[in-house]
Every structure is written in C-alpha cells, then in structure tokens.
Amino acid sequence: MTPYIYKFNQQYPNIRLEVCYQHRVINMVKDGFDIAIVNHLPTQQMQKVKKVFSTYMNLYCTKKYADKYGIPESLDTIFDYPIASAISHDYTIPDSIIAKNNKTGEEILVRIPIKKLKLCINNALGGVILLKTDEYIVGLPHFLKVDTINEPLVKVLPDYNFGEADFYLLRHPNEKHDITEILVKYLLLALDIGSS
C-alpha cells in the first residue's frame, strides 16, 4: 500500500489518511479501523474480507556481507550464516519454511533451527535497515524494489523463493463511508485486482 499513498493524496487532496503500520491481530470495530491490509485471515466473525495479493520472500545480502561471510550454496546451509529469520503475525517463530524452486516448482520444507537463531524480525523495512549493516541475510517481499536500497545486493539462493503469503483487505463490518469506498476502490485498482 505504501507506494500508492502519495498518488492517492495527489488525486484526493481533501481526504486525510491515517495509516498505521502494525504487526498484530486487529479488531476492526474495537480498534476503530475502516480498512486494513493484513497477511493472515482474521478470526473475528462478521468480518468483510477480500484476498488482494500474494507474495513470497527472496533472500538478499549485501556484496560486503558476501565478501565477509560468503553465501549459502544450498538450502541445508542457510542457517549456518548470519541471517535475520522471520517472526509470524502472531509473534511466534516458525520452525520451518517452504522453499520453492523457481525453475521446477518443487517445494521443499526447510527446518528452522530456532535455538541457533540470533535475530528474528517481523518487518520488511527493518530488514532493509539490517541489510545496510552488511551483517545479515534478510528475506524481503518479492515486490519490494531492492534497487532502491542503494547498496550492491546479492540474491541468495536465487533459484528459490520462500514462504508464500496471502494478503487480505479487511473492512469494518458496520461502516459505509463514501471516503472509505473511494480508498478501497483506489487500492484495488492500484493492486490491479478490480473491485467488489
């Protein structure tokens, strides 16, 4: 959503957006949100939900990291290197992740040695900052424009992507504001999925 905010503000200069970046389960009614985009299906009943896109992670490190530590050459050695592992939306650390071979489509379950991990994060922007330290391999969503990081990056295990995730648009079950409808239609068009 972030890359589309400024365009929305330009197109609708009289609408104020209040954007909250959070990594927690939300309650649309209790928290007072009109819409939300989340990476998990909500547990609340009566929730209006629409799948808006799917993503996966690619692994990256900086060239300086690769020169200093080397890079994994197989799925078996990923966790032998300094890596920032993921924290789920429910604040748990997964004990495995699916690696999908981009060429063959084969999916491989990779066990995460939780006791071996030194750092776990739940935020892609934090991952970008960690990349710039030249000390970690970081997973970033495939749609993130890594060329904007201004660092020479190396794609780690480029034949694989990791951890497919779906994102959902949630709408407040009782609110029907014209402004909310405008924003929802704008986001759905920006994400190229149409409206409903």
What does this structure look like?
This protein has 196 residues and is of the alpha+beta class. The chain has two domains: 77 residues, Periplasmic binding protein-like II (D-Maltodextrin-Binding Protein, domain 2, 3-Layer(aba) Sandwich); 110 residues, D-Maltodextrin-Binding Protein, domain 2 (3-Layer(aba) Sandwich), CATH 3.40.190.290. The chain contains five helices and nine strands. Strands 1, 2, 3, 4, 5, 6, 7, 8 and 9 form a nine-stranded mixed β-sheet that branches. Strand 4 and strand 5 form a beta hairpin. The chain is globular and about 55 Å long. The two termini are 18 Å apart. Belongs to the LysR transcriptional regulatory family. This is LysR substrate-binding domain-containing protein. It holds the Pfam family LysR_substrate. It comes from Aquella oligotrophica.
> What is the arithmetic mean of pLDDT?
86
Question: What's the level 1 CATH class of the largest domain?
Answer: Alpha Beta
Task: Estimate the strand proportion.
Answer: 25-35%
The 3D shape can be described as globular
How are helices and strands ordered from N to C? HHEEHEEEEHEEEH
User: What structural class is derived from the secondary structure elements?
Assistant: alpha+beta
Helical residue percent band: 10-25%
The domain tally reads: 2
Number of strands: 9
Uncertain segments are none
CATH architecture of the largest domain: 3-Layer(aba) Sandwich
Number of helices: 5
Q: What is the alpha-carbon Rg in Å?
A: 19 Å
What is the straight-line distance between the termini?
Answer: 18 Å
Main sheet overview: 9 strands, mixed
CATH fold category name of the largest domain = D-Maltodextrin-Binding Protein, domain 2
